[in-house]
Structures are given as structure tokens and as C-alpha cells.
Amino acid sequence: MTRIGVVGATGAVGTVTLGLLVERGLENVRAFASARSAGRTVEFGESELVVEEATPDALGAGELDLCFFSVGTDASRELVPFTAAGGTVCIDKSDAYRLVDGVPLVVAGVNDGVLDHDEVVANPNCSAIQLACVLKPLEEAVGLAGVRLSTYQSMSGAGDAGIEKLRATEPATADLAMDWDLEGEEFSEESKLRAETRKILALPDLPLQANCVRVPVLVGHAQAIWVETAEPLAPEDAREILGAAPHVALADFATPKKAAGRDEVLVGRIRSDATNENGTGLALWTVNDNLRKGAALNAVQIAETLLERRLIPA
Q1: Vertex 230 angle, CA 228 and 232, to 5°
Q2: In contact, 110 and 132? CB cutoff 8 Å
């Protein structure tokens, strides 16, 4: 039976990861977190797990076949190398390894064909997962010439701190935020979204411009997307293509509330871009549960693919 670790088990994404492992019948699981959370218990189905301290010695002891990391970038950079050196496959959800050459950046159902006997697999940014699930089937059908989008990202995308900030906000005082590092003219979230999407789709020169905003919603990222295709594509044909795509569901008027708890990226309002006269412009609206498909579920689906291909012990 596959021996699994969840690092960051007490956080928002770690908690969802544990729930998904229960749902999918993966039972040989250990929970890890920082020293301040060690000794606590976390729910695991009808039972509880005692949280262990995530240290290089504990994780690198070779007692795990697979380990999910739902911690910050610095913690991942410290702990993942020791864990991988112990023979454990690491699926990391931070941005520590996403753009590192040789480390696969994987979205289940989009580019999981790149998985091999990798020691470290990177789980993309939740917004990149959402975007790639929608762009990939269009790219396969008619090619992509360019992408523009605006994101409306929930507070849980900022982790436990974002969740607590929203809960502490008085009614009628909530505001939009742009809480990422400003790098020149772009926020780090915008440049990462471009770079990660290019890597996932294996389109290193894809023109992509994003404008990212944080909205006072607890769970659920939304994206307004304008796609320029390489060949003309009618909205009804795009609807048919997206409706048949893995991990995508059609829903014309999707909202974060409707997406919460869903495994799929919801996509709708598929229509021609009125600014494009060549029949190669589409406008789309997508919504995704960023804690589920946008983070925890995608990582679990990566693990399931590794198990199916016998790239880790079953």
C-alpha cells in the first residue's frame, strides 16, 4: 500500500487534500506540519491523524513513497530535496520548482503525458491550472495565436491568512486587492501565469497578457478570457470542443458559489469577440474551486496518474 505524506496538513489546501485522499480510498497517510502544529490532530475520514513535525530527518527517512507539499516556497525549498533524496516522489504546490528546467509542471488531463520517473513534480498556480484546462482543447483543435485575461481571485488563494482576513472584514467594507509583488509594470502573479501557462502547453512564445485582482470571495477563482485562435472557430464549435474536454464542464452563468466543491473548471458565456473581424476571436468566462481543482485535486490526480503508470509503488 502506497505510503503517503501530506506536509502542511493543517492549512486550507492540506485539509482539502486529506479529504480527497479519503474520498479516493488512499488510506496509508501521515500528516505533517510546522513545529507549532505538531501534536495536533486533523480529521481523516471517520478517524484522526496526529500531526508530526515536518523536519528534513522525518521526511527524508525513506518511509514514504509519495508526499504532497502544501507549504510556502521557502519551506518547500528546504524540505523537498531531503524528501526526494530519501526516495520519495514529491508533488509540490508552491512556486519553488514550477519553472525549474527538468521539473515537470503538470495539469491533470492537459499535459500529464510528461510524467516520468521524476523525483519532484510541480503543481501549477491555481489560476494557471484553470486557464490551461480551457486553453488546451482549443489549442489542439485550431491552435492559439494569443490570450488576454482578467482574473478575479478569491481570498483563499492567499492561504489561511487571506481566509482570516476576509472573515474579519466588516460587512460593506470589503475591497478589491492586488496583493502580489510588483515587478516592473506587472504583478508577480501576472508574469507567473504567463510563464507557467507557456510551460504547461509547451508554447514558449504564446502571447499572453493577464490582469490579476483579488476579490472578497472566500473560495472560487473566476477568469474573463479573450482567446485569439490560429484558425477561425465558431462559438458553437468551441462549446462542443470544451464540453467534451476532460476536467471541464459547461455552465453559462457560473459563479464561485456554483463552482465550490466541483471537480471541474466551469466554462461558459462562449461567444465571438466583437473586436475581431477574422472569426478567430472568442470571449469566455470560467470559474474554478481554487482549493479543490486549483490545488489539492490536481495534485491528487497527478498522484493517481503516477500510480496507474506504476511510477510509484501501489
Answers
A1: 80
A2: yes
Contact yes or no for 284/267 (Cβ under 8 A): yes
Q: How far apart are CA 35 and CA 30, in angstroms?
A: 15
Dist CA 281 CA 233 (whole Å): 8
Give the type of residue at 258: K
Cβ contact 207:147 at 8 Å: yes
Choosing from 90, 133, 212, 221, the catalytic residue is: 221
Length reported for the chain = 314
Q: Residue 258 corresponds to which cell in the numbers above? A: 456554483
Which tens digits make up the pLDDT trace of 252-306? 999 999 999 999 999 999 999 999 999 999 999 999 999 999 899 999 999 999 9
Pairwise CA distance, residues 278 & 142, whole Å: 14
Alpha-helical regions (H) of the chain = 12-23, 56-59, 73-85, 126-142, 159-167, 188-201, 235-243, 256-259, 297-308
Q: Around 189, how many Cα atoms within 13 Å sit in the side-chain half-sphere?
A: 19
Q: Which three cell numbers stand for residue 162?
A: 487571506
Per-residue pLDDT tens digits for 202-213:
999 999 999 999
Strand partners, 4: 29, 66
Identify whether 221 is a catalytic site residue: yes
Do 252 and 267 form a contact (C-beta atoms < 8 A)? no
The catalytic position among 126, 133, 212, 247 is 126
The percent of the chain in helix, strand and coil, each rounded to the nearest 5, is: 35, 25, 40
- Per the annotation, the verdict on 90 as an active-site residue is no
Ranges of H-type helices in 172-270: 188-201, 235-243, 256-259
